[in-house]
Write a structure and sequence with these properties.
The structure is a homotetramer of 313-residue chains. The first copy, chain A, has 313 residues and is of the alpha/beta class. The first copy, chain A, contains eleven helices and ten strands. Helix content of chain A is 37%, strand content 12%.
C-alpha cells in the first residue's frame, strides 16, 4: 500500500554511502576507539577534550594578538578566528580576507597555538592552507561538495561543521567526500540545528544526542560549538559543560574582550554570544578537573564513553 | 508593507499572559531565586537537584515494590510510575488504572518516597490526588486546559511536562492556567521536542537551552526528563549529567530491572529507554558530588546559576 | 551496530495500531473510495468538497446570526463557531460557553446549516452533543485520549484536527481511539504544522502532502483549515484553492464581517485570519466550477483523486 | 529581563540587508508588479506561469533528446537537466559533467527551449554559462556566497532554490548577493523544507505560504519545484496545481520516460519523483486553462495576485 519516496536514506545505508569513515565497515575500530586527528601538537580523539577559542572574526592585528594571548592564558589548546565570514547579507562585514589570514598566522606563531579558520571558496583552499593549521568548513558549506573535495585533497586537517538542517546521514556523507580523497584528518562539529523554537529564546537548538550518535557511526572525533548553539554569552558555560558530559571530544568557543579596557569595542559580528577570557578559563578548568577526576576515580565518564563506543552506541 | 499574522505571541507578552508566574511581574523574585515547591519532605528549587525515578508503567505490585526499593537504594528522592498511560494506539497497554494507583501508594508508603503519577482525565484528578503526592500533566496534555484548571484547584503539586512542539510562551501559558487557580506548586519538565531529526538517531531532541530560559522568565523550578529526550538507555546517564550542568532543578528518569533475575521481564512500554538501578546510582552520585563540590569551592556552578537568574537570563 | 530507540512507529505499523480505520485492513475500500460521513444533509467523502465557515468564536447572538446568514448566502454547507475556546493564556477570552452553544443551535436552525463546534472538556461532551451536529476535537486536544473516547461514544460525527507536531501515525492513532468505540463518523482536518519558519511569514506551515497520505492510509475523509494554516486573511483564498487541487474533501474557514457596517467590531480572537463573506463566495464558486468542470470533462482532478486512492497512494 | 540573542534578523531588516531586491526600498514596484526575467524567449513574472521540465540528471544523449522532445510536445517552455549533481554520498552518480552540458545544449538547440542546469562549483560558472541559458543554484548551495557572487557576475539569469532550512530572510539575503553584482535576472524557487515530518509520508514539506510572502517582500519572480517538495511522482500533479493556485510564477518538474518502450530505464537519481510526459501535458493544460479562464472572467486569480502584490502582501 505504501509508495516509495525519493531520496530516503537511513543509518543502515552508511556502509554503502560512507565506507571510508563508517564504523560498520571498519572492524579495527570495533573497540570503540576514535581515530586520532593531529593538528600540530594538538590531538583530537584521545579522550581529553580539545579547547578551541578565539573571536568570531579577525578585526585587527592588535586585537587578535591580545585576544590570542588571553585565550592561551585561559588554557585554550587552539585558536579560532574568521578571515572570510559567511554573512546573510552581502552588505554585512565580510572579514579581512588575506590580511586576516596573516594576522591569524602571526597570532598562532606568537602563542604556539595551532589555528583553525573557515574557507568558503574552493578557489581559496590552497591560500588558506598556507596560513591555517586546520580548515573549517562552515555549516552553510557542509554540502558544498567541490569545497569538501578540495579540502580533502589539501591534506590539511578539516573541521566539518554540521549543516543547520542536516541529518546524521547527510553530515557523514559530507565527511565521506573529504575522506574519500585520502584525508582522514576530519573532526566533526555540532553547532545547533534549526527547529520550531527558532529564535524565541535561543539562536539554534543544541542537539547533544547527535554526539554519541556520531561516535557510534564513525570513528572520527566530534566536538561542539556552544556559541552558535545558544547564541547567548550567558549560556555558553552551561552548554560547554553539558557538551563535555555528553562525551564531546572538544569545544569551539567564541571569545571577546568587549567592555574591558579603554578602547574595547563591540565585536563586528555575533557579539551577543562571545564570552570573556575569564569565563573561558572556568570552562577549561571544568574540563581538566572532570577529566583528571574521572581518570583517578575510574569514573564512568571515561569508561562509559569508551563503552558507548565499544558497543557501537 | 508587512501584514499581521494571527496568534503571534512573544516573551514580551508574558507580563500580560502569565502575570501569576512571570518574573517580570514579581519583583520579589528579582534576586534570581526560585519559588520552592514542596512535595512531602522533598523540595524543588533549592539549588539541590531532585531525583525522581521509577518505571514507565506500573505493571504489578511485586515488580513495583522491588523497583521502588531499588531506586531508593540508588539514592532517588521521589518515585514515578504510570497508572494511566497515554498511548498512541488504543490497542496498546493503557496502564492498570486504579489498581496501579494503589500499588504506587503502597510503594511510596513502604519507601517513604513521595510519588508522582500522570493524570490524563479531568474526571480523575480527585481520584489520582487521593493516591499521589504530585500530579503529572504529560506532554500530550500540556494544552488540556480543563485538566490544568482542575489540577490547579486540587491544590496538589503539579509536574507540568512541555508539549513536544510547545514554544516557551505556550508552556508558561499552560502553567499560568494552574497558577491562576491559586496553586503555585508547579514544577516544569523539559522532555525533548520534535524536530527534523525525528527518530533518525534519537527519540526527540533534548532542548537544554530552554532550562535557563524558563529560569529567566519564571520563578518556578524546572527539571529534565532524559529518558524521553533520548529514547535510548545508553544515553540517559550522559543526558542527565548534561541537564544538571545546564542548571536543571532535577531529573525524571525511567528505570527497570529488565534482564536481571530469573523472571525479569521486558517492560510493557518504552523498554529501550529504561536504565538500570546501577546507572541511576551513578547519576545520583554525580549530582551529589557536583553540588557539594560546587558549594565547597564556591564554584561557578552554583553562583553562575544564581547569577543567571538574578540577572534575568 | 545500531541500537533501538524507544517509541518509534511507522506507517507499516498501522495495521496493528489502527485496525478499525486503516485501508490496509479493509479490502472493501480497496477501490479507493472514501467512507462517507453524514452530518445532517451534508456528506463528506463523496468527491464534492464540503464548505464549513463561520467565526472563530461566537461573540453575540446578533453577530452570529448575521454571519450565519452571510455564509449561507455565500454558499457554505455548514457552520462553524467556537463556544469553548482553547487559549494560550487563561486571561484571554475563553468563549461564551453554554450561551454560545445555544446561539450556534439557533443559527443552525435558522439557516438549516449543520453546525460544528469544539469540545475541549470530556465532561462537556454530552452537553455539546445536545447543541452541535458535529463535535470538533481541536489540535491541542488531538491526544486527549479520554476526550476521544467520549467523542466516540457520543455517536456524533467528529472533526479531528491534526496536532501541530503530530506525525501521520499519531494522528491516525487518535482517530482510532474514536473509531474503536464504534463511531466511524470521523473527518480529519489538516491545519498547519509547527516548523522552523514559525511565525516569520505565516502562522503555521500548511502541509498539503499529508492530504493524499491520509487518503492512502485510511478511508476517512480529510479536509483542510486554510485559516490557521496561513494566519493571514489575504492568503486564505489561495490556500483554499490549493487544498482543493491537492484533493481535500472540504474546507474549514474562519469568516468575519469586521469593518463592514456602522458597528462592525474586530473579532475577539484571530481577527487577522478571518476572511469576508465575499471572499468566501469566491472560494465556493471556485470549488463548484472546478468540480463540475472536472466531471463534465472527465478531468484528471476527479479521476486522479480516485486513482490515487485506488492505488493506495 | 530578556537578553539579546546573536544573529537574529526579521523581515523588518530587509531594507538594510537586501536594498537591491526589496520592495520596501523600491517604490517603483509599489503597484505590485514583478520584475520580468527573460531567458531567451521565455519571460518569468508576467502573470503567465513558466513550465520547466526535464530529467533529474542527463544520462545519455539519446535519452535526453528523446525526453526533450517529449516535454516540448507536452507544452513545456524550458528544459531542465543535471550535468553536475550534488549527491549525499561521493559514491553516488555525480552526473556526466561537461558531456552533460553539451547534451543539454544540443537538446536545447534542437527543441528551441532554453535550458537551465545546476552549477555547484564556483570554478565552473564560466563553463556552465557557455552551455546553459540559465544557471541553477541548488538548495545545498543557497548560502555558497562565492558561487552566488560569480553567478551574479556572469550576467546569466539565475534560478535560486531555497535552502531546506532557510528562513525567508536568509533566502532573500542569498538573492541579494547575486543582485548586488548588478544581475537582477533572478528567479526564486521553493522546493520544500525540512520539518519533523521528514520522510514519514513525503520527502520534504511543501511550503506554499512562502510564495506570496516572497512576492510581498521582493519584486523577483518565484516558482515552485513540486518534484522535490513531494518526493512522489503520484503527487506532483496535485502539488503543481496547488502551487499555481497559490500564485507561483512557474513550475520546475522532473520527468522521465521510465517504464515506456523496450529499453526504458529507471533514472539514476530520484526516480520515484519523476512524472511521465503525459502527466506533464495535463499540468500544462491545467495552467493554460486556469490562466485564460481567469483573464476572460476577470477572475480573482489574476486580480487577487496583483492586489496581493500591490498591497504588499
Amino acid at each position: 500500500m505504501s509508495q516509495k519516496i525519493a531520496g530516503q536514506v537511513t543509518l543502515e545505508d552508511l556502509s554503502r554511502m560512507c565506507p571510508t569513515i563508517s564504523r560498520r565497515t571498519h572492524p579495527e575500530f570495533a573497540d570503540g576507539c576514535a581515530f586520532e586527528v593531529e593538528v600540530g601538537a594538538v590531538r583530537f580523539g584521545t579522550g581529553v577534550p580539545v579547547m578551541i577559542a578565539g573571536p568570531c572574526a579577525v578585526e585587527s592585528e592588535r586585537r587578535m594578538i591580545e585576544l590570542a594571548l588571553s585565550v592561551k592564558a585561559a588554557g585554550a589548546d587552539m585558536l579560532r578566528g574568521g578571515a572570510f565570514k559567511p554573512r546573510t547579507s552581502p552588505h554585512d562585514f565580510q572579514g579581512l580576507g588575506l590580511e586576516g589570514l596573516k594576522i591569524l598566522r602571526a597570532a598562532s606563531d606568537l602563542t604556539g597555538l595551532p589555528v583553525v579558520t573557515e574557507v568558503m571558496d574552493v578557489r581559496l583552499v590552497e591560500l588558506v592552507s598556507q596560513y591555517a593549521d586546520m580548515l573549517q568548513i562552515g555549516s552553510r558549506s557542509m554540502q558544498n561538495y567541490p569545497l569538501l573535495v578540495e579540502a580533502g585533497r589539501s591534506g590539511k586537517p578539516v573541521l566539518l561543521k554540521r549543516g543547520m538542517a542536516a541529518s546524521l546521514c547527510e553530515w557523514l556523507g559530507a565527511a565521506e567526500y573529504i575522506a574519500s580523497e585520502g584525508n582522514l584528518n576530519i573532526v566533526l562539529c555540532e553547532r545547533g540545528i534549526k527547529t520550531h523554537t527558532a529564535g524565541e529564546y535561543s539562536r539554534y537548538t543544541l542537539d547533544l544526542n547527535v554526539v554519541p550518535a556520531v561516535q557510534a557511526e564513525t570513528f572520527l572525533p566530534v566536538i561542539v560549538d556552544p556559541s552558535h548553539a545558544t547564541g547567548m554569552a550567558s549560556r555558553v558555560e552551561q552548554a560547554s559543560r553539558a557538551a563535555i558530559e555528553f562525551g564531546s571530544d572538544g569545544l569551539l568557543i567564541e571569545v571577546s574582550t568587549w567592555g574591558r579596557g579603554p578602547d574595547a569595542q563591540r565585536p563586528l559580528c555575533d557579539a551577543d554570544q562571545a564570552i570573556t577570557p575569564e569565563t573561558l578559563r572556568r570552562i577549561v578548568e571544568f574540563v581538566r578537573e572532570r577529566k583528571s577526576g574521572a581518570q583517578s576515580r575510574n569514573d564512568p565518564m571515561t569508561s562509559l564513553a569508551r563503552h558507548a563506543r565499544a558497543s557501537g552506541r
